[in-house]
């Protein structure tokens, strides 16, 4: 495709870039149809218009499937930064008018919804009540992805475990989360009358998280025979429920299976640890009425 200079960015260009972002997130034109509310042929025409406008090929599409080109990945990254800058401008105007309107992007780690102290839920309720025109965008992600989103401006706030803080972010403790060691009702440990000691526990296969852990959490897992990994707490629960593994889960998350007698805690007096869940924002952020209201609702 012949290269060309881009003289200016129009409203139509912004529309095309938003369509491109949605298609990239969905992974195909067909998957993006319902989300965008337009047909595949219309999406294809819009993508061709954007490629002609930019003078570069953004994606490969055909029988082999959908894939971004190197240029497409770069354009997606740059457009995210531009959209964040536009949203920041809108937030500044809102701050001047003291009227909350616009988008609020929050990233949260999985499985916090069962936390009994519903502080995040209450803060989102307050935000919606006081700013009905706010568009809430909540994404579930890993701690590392949330921190990256905060640093590059894609996210306004995040909720994640406090393990190794980044220098460019502010962390405020929100929850103190207790995790215990669990097995399923089909595991040999489930019906044992005597709690197993360390030598007994190491005879059974266990799960270790592949996400970052504190020194205390690492020490607990070193006491086990970890033969499987999981990227998040839901993955750990899946493996525990096979009856083949033992693993640590937050007590509030495991409670749904404990109540149904599908899981039980093993040696709970000694096989447990606590984690701090923090609300995280970027240092040096500009005033943002929506974010400040959210933090105030959390008593932070």
From TrEMBL:
<keyword id="KW-0805">Transcription regulation</keyword>
<dbReference type="InterPro" id="IPR036388">
    <property type="entry name" value="WH-like_DNA-bd_sf"/>
</dbReference>
<dbReference type="InterPro" id="IPR036390">
    <property type="entry name" value="WH_DNA-bd_sf"/>
</dbReference>
<dbReference type="InterPro" id="IPR005119">
    <property type="entry name" value="LysR_subst-bd"/>
</dbReference>
<comment type="similarity">
    <text>Belongs to the LysR transcriptional regulatory family.</text>
</comment>
<protein>
    <submittedName>
        <fullName>LysR family transcriptional regulator</fullName>
    </submittedName>
</protein>
<dbReference type="Pfam" id="PF03466">
    <property type="entry name" value="LysR_substrate"/>
</dbReference>
<keyword id="KW-0238">DNA-binding</keyword>
<keyword id="KW-0804">Transcription</keyword>
<dbReference type="Pfam" id="PF00126">
    <property type="entry name" value="HTH_1"/>
</dbReference>
<dbReference type="InterPro" id="IPR000847">
    <property type="entry name" value="LysR_HTH_N"/>
</dbReference>
<feature type="domain" description="HTH lysR-type">
    <location>
        <begin position="12"/>
        <end position="69"/>
    </location>
</feature>
């Amino acid at each position: 495709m012949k290269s060309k200079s881009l003289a200016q960015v129009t409203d139509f260009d912004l529309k095309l870039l938003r369509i491109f972002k949605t298609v990239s997130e969905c992974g195909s034109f067909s998957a993006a149809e319902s989300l965008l509310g337009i047909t595949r042929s219309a999406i294809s025409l819009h993508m061709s218009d954007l490629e002609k406008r930019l003078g570069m090929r953004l994606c490969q599409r055909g029988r082999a499937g959908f894939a971004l080109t190197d240029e497409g990945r770069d354009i997606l990254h740059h457009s995210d930064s531009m959209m964040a800058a536009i949203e920041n401008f809108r937030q500044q105007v809102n701050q001047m008018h003291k009227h909350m309107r616009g988008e609020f992007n929050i990233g949260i780690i999985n499985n916090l919804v069962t936390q009994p102290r519903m502080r995040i839920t209450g803060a989102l309720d307050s935000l919606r009540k006081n700013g009905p025109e706010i568009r809430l965008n909540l994404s579930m992600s890993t701690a590392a992805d949330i921190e990256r989103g905060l640093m590059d401006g894609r996210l306004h706030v995040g909720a994640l475990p406090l393990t190794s803080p980044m220098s460019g972010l502010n962390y405020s403790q929100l929850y103190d989360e207790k995790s215990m060691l669990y097995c399923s009702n089909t595991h040999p440990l489930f019906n044992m009358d005597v709690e197993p000691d360390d030598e007994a526990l190491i005879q059974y296969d266990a799960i270790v998280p592949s996400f970052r852990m504190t020194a205390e959490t690492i020490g607990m897992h070193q006491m086990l025979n970890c033969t499987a990994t999981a990227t998040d707490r839901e993955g750990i629960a899946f493996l525990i429920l096979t009856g083949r593994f033992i693993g640590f889960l937050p007590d509030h998350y495991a409670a749904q299976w404990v109540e149904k007698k599908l899981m039980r805690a093993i040696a709970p007096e000694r096989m447990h640890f606590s984690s701090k869940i923090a609300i995280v924002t970027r240092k040096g952020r500009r005033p943002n009425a929506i974010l400040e209201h959210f933090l105030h609702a959390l008593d932070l």
